[in-house]
Amino acid sequence: MTRLLDEWTPGGGADEHLVRVWQGRSEQARRIYDLEYSARTSLYGFQSGANTVAPVPSTLPDGPVEQPSDGTGPPMRRDGNPDASYRVVVDRDFLSEPAALRALDLRVERGHQVRVVDQPLIKLLIADGETAMVQVEPGRSLELRPPLVVLATELFESVWRRSRPYLREDGDLNPTDRRILQLMLSGLTDAATAHQLGTSPRTVQRRVRALMDLAAVTSRVQLGWYAMRNNWV
Question: Three-state SS for 25?
């Protein structure tokens, strides 16, 4: 789908009702913001790493204040759209970003459904099943309208079915251990995991060892299988 959109060039006329091009960081960020806060029922999205359009810290309540690109109007909200249900999928690169876990925890607290995949994702947002923004390169996104938006919706649903929950609240596993398992399964190193959790690699290794003992396994691969089969993650 990305290759198809990347090869598309605007021809004017009716084409503009199907696909619109947004270029530059500020234009893309403002349009994504407008789509999110004008949605009436649902918001589906992919979040990937190295997000220069909407860096993770800027989406947090205490993050840097962002003004509209034209310099007028109030700062952009960060409290989420209360009228829309959220389904969000993140990839391994996103989990490596600064403050990523804090941002995802905040989503979960707000009732958003969050899932994780290991393969890289394109940046995507679908509002109400009627409009989709697909980033085809860092400086350019395409806005899709019906009937093309169905391509983005089908892509989202297929990835959602293959993804796993970010955090499960059921069971007796410690929340910190759940995060360690989630990051381990996503391929982060012990050092990267420790950095995200604000602890040391030695502490991460010790907790992983304790989880292996609890699961009665001898390798991290076996621990990953056990965790998936027993709904630890």
Answer: helix
Residue range 112-138: average pLDDT?
Answer: 93
Which secondary structure element, helix H or strand E, spans residue 125, and what is its range? strand 124-127
Tokens representing 55 are: 């860096």
Q: How confident is the model over 140-188, as pLDDT tens digits?
A: 999 999 988 999 999 999 999 999 888 766 556 888 898 899 899 888 9
Of the candidates 217, 158, 224, 212, the one whose C-alpha atom is nearest the C-alpha of residue 187 is 224
**Main-chain dihedrals φ then ψ at residue 99, nearest 5 degrees:** 70, 15
Q: Residue 193 belongs to what domain range?
A: 175-229
* Coil, helix or strand at residue 86: strand
Could you say which of 165, 191, 215 is where a domain stops?
165
Q: Residue with structure tokens 């840097």?
A: 64
CATH number at 99 reads 3.30.870.10
Instruction: Name the percent of the chain in helix, strand, coil, to the closest 5.
Output: 45, 15, 40
123 & 221 share domain: no
